[in-house]
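Question (not urgent): is this output format expected?
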Amino acid sequence: MFSRKSLLVTLVLAWLLPVVGSAQSAPGAPGVMPTWTTGSKEAIGTATSLESKVWFTLENGILTEVYYPRLDTADLRTLEFAVSDGRNTWAEKKDLKHSLERLNTDSLLYRQVSSDPAGKFKITKTYVSDPQRDTLLIQVDFFAPAGYNLYVLADPSLKNSGYGDTGFTQDGALVTQKSDVACALMSTPAFSEATSGFAGKSDGYTDLLLHHKLEWRYERAENGNVFQAAKLGGANHYMLALGFGPNPDAAIDAAKKSLARKYSDVTAEYVVGWKEYLKGIRKVAPRYETEFQLAAMVLKAQEDKTYRGAMIASMSIPWGFSVKADTPAVGGYHLIWARDLYEVATGMMAAGDREAAERALTYLFNVQQEPDGRFPQNSWLDGKPYWTALQMDEIAYPIILAWQLVRADADTWQKHVRPAAEFLLAHGPTTQEERWEEVPGYSPSTMAAEIAGLVCAADIARKNGASEDADRYLHAADDWASHIEAWMVTTTGHLSKEAPGYYMRIDNNTDPNDGYQLDVRNGGGVWDERDVVDAGFLELVRLGIRPADDPVIRNSIKVVDAQIRVETPNGPAFYRYSHDGYGETYFGGPWLGEGKGRIWPIFAGERGEYEIAAGRDPSVYLEAMLKFANSGGLIPEQVWDQAAPTQSGFVFGRGTGSATPLSWSMAEFLRLVAGAEEKHVVETPSIVADHFLHHH
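Got this back:
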């Protein structure tokens, strides 16, 4: 039987225990719904070494998605700073002015500066990944009067999802763990206070906004959308390390070892790696040299270090702030499209990095290609398909790349080129989806790739003694080429007043004059297919199937200029096609399935290549691509097409929130610069041009 005294003690303990427990474990699990960040990155970085499997992105004054140990796996949403004087709190992204500086032209070394609009304080941050291990180092300088405190706010999202993380403090580090991945955030000098909570419920960000100090200090947040915060200990200069590993001990060890090194030594090693890389990049005119070298570095930075040759479409998630991160299924643009990888590989070849193109082809053949010869619409880095539509140009481009790289050995022929060519014969020339991944039919750009692919396959076949295969491939290529105009050029469309024939974006059958009602998707509406044009027919010129002065090509150029060309303060660019809906909404909001397509820099590049093929000066398009680059030198996927201001803050002729950098854009710039200097289209496979333009 309890005594009166023991009963009283028991009741007091029962009342106290939840309070003690709440001081240790954060309430509010699992936290608010996680998302990613905007796709408009201003800078990206990684070490050139294969030992450092960490990539980072910078945007709007802060650190955004960080990837480890593969480029298709994001592990951090954001890391930013906050300042408080005890009465007010300034959150870095929301309340401060931002600037970005590239510290030298021969590495991906960037510094962000965030400053109080009133001029009271300033934060500078320089980022470098340790070439020797899986750590990101951030040198932080805080300039402020006495009484101002600096806090770091980290939003981890391990293994490509914001849910399921567990955060805690260990060994002076803010640690987050999910199954076989962990990250550890440490500082020198050490954090004076630290907490792990749940986003939107018990997190340090909300705490600071409410109380202007960390009142909610929790040692652990279990299985949810973890958000971590720490107070930096009263100094003006800090070194932060974000270490990664398969478990907390390994992540802490990586962070500690990087912090033990001199930052100047780490930076020097990081920069030397990039300088060594640039020694192999071609020299170009001074006007374009800085951007040319940067484009090559950006493409190299977007190559995975486990799956070599896998250069992703972009280190971004388009409109990611509107994309849920509650499951690891979001691929964004950190996936592999065979088409985009072909564009990157040919850009790298133009830049002088032939080895990168070789690795890309090896990846395509050994990781992505399926037994029947096809390639997936796109895939995770390990080759697992993400989307599953059949896009026939993606079957053809690897064959063209094999020919361009003179990869004609028996193994390549038997295991890779022949299966792909046979697949083209069996399923072409129509495609389930063309290069914009939306509609089926007969597409000029797709057919150009198919025809060129078959001609290249025929040459490789002949080199391997397979003359019957070579004859079949050439016969099909010639047959399809002879039907190009009949199948895809309308003579009854009303978009051309000067001449009757112009290329449509796509034809659902082999009658381009039947007025088929085409749903362009993405909320763009249903239109007479003769009223929907794009510049995909230029692929017929770039790949050597039609001459630049072909009358239908020239007339189609006039139609395109009238229908989808936009002059911006930074130069001309083009929409993907008439009535495109893939872009921000009319009011500047994120694309959520429908919107209004914006203009793309890659089309300025493709038009520039056409001008080269026509023997003209492409400078206006080169200048446009150069000026479309943002403050970090990154060329976006899409550019804002309106002069009128919007609440979203987009600027006429500058990037939107879709995807920056787009690897295709950077590669197109490389090809255009090289082509302008060599005065021919460097991408054109000579075997195709010889067959259609010279031999015939």
